[in-house]
Design goal:
Layout lengths: L3 H8 L3 E2 L5 H6 L11 H4 L1 H13 L4 E3 L7 H4 L8 H17 L6 E6 L14 H17 L4 E7 L2 H12 L5 E5 L13 H9 L7 E6 L3 H14 L6 E5 L4 E4 L2 E4 L3 H13 L2 E6 L5 H11 L10 H8 L29
Parallel strand pairs: 1-10, 2-3, 3-4, 4-5, 5-6, 6-7, 7-10
Antiparallel strand pairs: 8-9
The protein binds zinc ion.
The site of zinc ion (ZN) has 8 residues, from loops.
Length: 341
């Protein structure tokens, strides 16, 4: 089956994804604690503007504003009965923004975690997770997305439920997991183990990789681990945060600048990533820095730890707390705002 993402991957060495959704929407006035997803219905013009600003700086792939639009996560906003409406609206907004681009832009339907742990680690059944992801995936497909993009996942059981549900639509599926706890997922799984798990998924994922997490240095380190375990033709995705979050005057800001993201992007290419964008804190300006740094860049050797740390600072291998503590449901697995950025 012909698919825009597959076609572009066949034509080009790399594709530029987009930047953050959640943190950029906060900068656009999203009240703290409110899900960005509701804007698909309540303020579609703002969602459109964010998509357009990423397309303007060169995004080949834009992610829908539906990261938290599964019925479990929507419960936080008492909108659990509106999953189909919100997902379909998000897909249509992104598709309209793409139509105005004048060049091929892939619309990827974002699907984030439910916020619950699946049995035996938590109380959610595998069926309940799969049902919720099916509802979301079907609505995104109806809205016209080219691919389903499962992101910020930290548990294999949830990844399996999401990929199973997504694949049932017949669309290609991308997944990115978050490795933010000393180089592993919150559940303690390494990138190598993730690769092994992902290679067992059928039908095969069109691309997979890492997003969000504990800053660009750890993300590039994760990519290097992926590269060692990946199959030759695996398409690896990098969507790292723009540095690490810190609170300044009550607002969350990200420590990275344009130069950080330019260095991160080149190292991600060196590590073999073919789809590169940014997660939390990545504004359109930062994404342009990524785009510029990749233009005409010829990838070098896979970077070693010294090269990564020289460019991006220390890899916080032991900085994260031990154990599997759960973050707040709103925050998700990674940052103050894990809404795919
Ligand atoms: Zn993020």
């Amino acid at each position: 089956m012909s698919n825009l993402l597959a076609d572009l991957l066949a034509e080009r060495d790399y594709l530029l994804a987009d930047g953050a959704t959640g943190t950029n929407m906060m900068a656009m006035g999203l009240p703290p604690g409110q899900a960005p997803d509701l804007w698909n219905v309540d303020a579609p013009e703002k969602v459109t503007r964010l998509h357009e600003s990423f397309i303007e700086v060169g995004s080949d792939i834009i992610l829908t504003n539906t990261f938290g639009s599964n019925r479990h996560r929507l419960k936080l906003d008492k909108a659990e009965g509106r999953a189909s409406e919100i997902n379909e609206a998000g897909a249509r907004i992104a598709c309209r923004a793409r139509e105005a681009a004048g060049r091929p832009v892939v619309v990827a339907g974002s699907m984030g975690p439910t916020g619950e742990l699946i049995e035996p680690h938590g109380t959610m059944t595998r069926e309940a997770a799969e049902d919720a992801f099916s509802e979301q995936a079907e609505a995104l497909a109806r809205g016209g997305v080219d691919v389903l993009w499962i992101e910020t996942i930290f548990a294999f059981a949830e990844l399996e439920a999401a990929t199973t549900a997504a694949a049932r639509t017949g669309l290609p599926v991308v997944s990115t997991m978050t490795f933010d706890t000393a180089g592993k997922t919150m559940m303690g799984d390494s990138p190598e183990k993730a690769c092994e798990f992902i290679h067992g998924i059928s039908p095969r994922l069109i691309a997979h990789g890492a997003n969000c997490g504990a800053g660009p240095a750890m993300l590039v380190d994760t990519l290097c681990a992926f590269r060692r375990s990946a199959l030759e033709d695996d398409v690896i995705v990098a969507k790292g945060n723009c540095g690490v979050p810190k609170t300044v005057d009550g607002a969350v800001v990200y420590s990275g600048d344009n130069a950080t993201m330019a260095r991160y992007a080149r190292l991600a290419r060196d590590a073999g990533a073919r789809i590169i964008g940014g997660c939390c804190g990545t504004t359109p300006e930062r994404l342009k820095a990524i785009a510029d740094s990749l233009e005409g860049y010829v990838p070098g050797e896979i970077p070693d730890t010294a090269a990564i740390e020289a460019a991006l600072g220390p890899i916080p291998r032991r900085a994260a707390k031990k154990g599997r503590q759960r973050r707040s449901r709103r925050a998700g697995p990674a940052a103050p705002d894990a809404s795919q950025g």
